[in-house]
Amino acid sequence: MKASTPPKKRIGIDARMYSSQFTGIGRYVYELTEHLFKMDPRNDYVLFMNDPEYSAFTPPRAGVKKVLVNARHYSFAEQFHFWRILQKEKLDLMHFTHFNTPLLYRSRSLVTIHDLTLSLFPGKKMTSWIHRLAYNMVIHDSVRKVARVIAVSKNTKMDLERLLHANLKKIRVIYEGVNPQFKPTQDNALVDRVLKKYRIQRPFLLYTGVWRNHKNLVRLLEAIQILRERHGFKGQLVMTGREDPFYPEISSTIKKLGLEKNIIKTGLVSEEELVVLYGTARLYVLPSLYEGFGLPPLEAMACGTPVAVSRVSCLPEICGEDNAVFFDPILPESIAEGLHALWSNDELHHRLSRRGLAWVKQFSWEQMAKETLNVYDKVLNSPH
Which residue, among 177, 170, 126, has the nearest Cα to 151 in the 3D structure? Predict the structure, then answer.
């Protein structure tokens, strides 16, 4: 007797952060949907989007629909307008790709938690008691009401239990992936063009990411000063990303320590330029006090560049104990010694470069999407 085909389901995805750019949750949503639509032709998908991404997005196949929401996070529109739109779509399952969910939504759903940075480091953008109240209310509600929680690392899973008292039985750890275009640089003309554009001289250190308090950049700058004084360091620290007006102390520390000649601030760079910077840096450094997953060190590894990172949160888990230099991010002296060890030791540099290239192969966006689809199936096939 021929087995019956499972009935088609209608799955919603919160794609308000959808972006093909190379950072954050936008990349996660982009890679998830790109792979899901190819590997799951059976089910229908509804993407809830904001402009301008909504206008630019073309559904890749029949059975994929886009819906305009235009609801910012922490807004009344998110809580009420978005909720009404979700109700109209009559979904079998809704995947919230970030913890910002409408409090009134109680249909079958799951949520991805990327980190608990705002629980641990509220920062200057969360100074208002209203913002703190909204954050705590929304994230606690989203974790408790959903059928499953996807955590991007084992460390994030344990943070969910420790900080939010989440039920461990409904948390599934699914690692993020590394885009295949992050690989050792071969185009010498492109390398010369990028380095010349930003006035970068090799060898150099590289930091990529946001300029926020939990990224610990002031202590990194203090470590560079220690390297200059103790080891005669004359190299550059290249810092990509947009300067954050909420954290002017980073730029003021550069001036206070007299590091203007050692620091290159590129601002936002293209993905092509980022691959070049990863591939030509002597080493990549991530001095964070906390990370939920920590994708940049893996991208650097994929480009053949060894990494020096904080021994905190998920970083030993994601980078692997034997594949990176670790330091104590609270102590600028420890950061400096970790950087010096990797900067000056060619044998260690070569060994970690080789190990990193092998290690990073296990992190695949396709595998992430496959495991996420497996979670969808389990939730859809379980009783309410």
Answer: 170
pLDDT for 348: 99
Q: What is the pLDDT of residue 383?
A: 80
> Which pLDDT score is estimated for 246?
74
Burial 336-359, CB ≥16 within 10 A → b, else e = bbbbbebbeeeeebeebbebbbeb
Tell me what pLDDT residue 214 has: 92
**Secondary structure of residue 361 in the 3-state scheme:** helix
CA atoms of 144 and 135, how far apart (whole Å): 14
Q: How many CB atoms lie within 10 A of CB 178?
A: 22
pLDDT at 224: 98
Between the alpha carbon of residue 303 and those of residues 20, 191, 287, 307, the distances in Å are 19, 13, 20, 11
* Run of H or E including 265: strand 263-267
What's the Cα-to-Cα distance from 125 to each of 3, 132, 245, 298, 321, rounded to whole Å?
Answer: 55, 10, 10, 28, 34
Which tens digit of pLDDT belongs to each residue from 74-125? 888 999 999 999 999 999 999 999 999 999 999 999 999 999 998 998 766 5
CB 114 within 8 A of CB 152: yes
Closest of 33, 98, 60, 56 to residue 68, by C-alpha: 56
Determine what percent of the chain is predicted with pLDDT higher than 70: 96
287 and 210 Cβ atoms separated by less than 8 Å: no
Domains delineated in the chain: 10-177+364-380 (3.40.50.2000), 188-362 (3.40.50.2000)
Burial 47-77 (b: 16+ CB within 10 A, else e): bbbbeebbeeeeeeeebbebbebebeeeeeb
